[in-house]
Amino acid sequence: MELGKTAIYYRKNPAARVKHQETSRRAAAKPLAIKKRVEANAGRKRLGLKKGDTRDASHKKGKIVAEDRKNNRARGGALKR
User: Fold this and answer.
1) Cα separations (Å) of 80 from 1, 37, 74, 76?
2) Using one digit for the tens of pLDDT, what is the confidence trace for 17-62?
3) Across-strand partners of 53?
4) Nearest CA among 75, 78, 56, 52 for reference residue 65
């Protein structure tokens, strides 16, 4: 599998990579992000999703449902600008 454009950029620019990792670390440590991960992990267990499954525990309309991984991540808020 080939690397994506972003991965190639960060490998060529170590300073930018460090800054990006720090920003990502701070975003992941926010209480709302932690809460969302905890809910999704509990949802995975409740839905019977195993490691390597092609489905994710997705937050849709206030509920956690099993959804195709590709569709769930394509809809991600960070990717929409």
Assistant:
1) 25, 20, 9, 7
2) 999 999 999 999 999 999 989 988 898 899 999 888 899 888 888 8
3) none
4) 56
Structure tokens at 67: 């959804």
Token reading at 79 = 């990717």
User: pTM value?
Assistant: 0.65
Query: Does some domain include residue 79?
Result: no
pLDDT for 77 equals: 62
Give the span between the Cα atoms of 41 and 38, in whole angstroms.
5
Give the C-alpha distances (Å, rounded to integers) separating 2 from 9, 37, 58.
13, 28, 27
In a domain? residue 50 = yes
Full domain range(s) for residue 15:
5-74
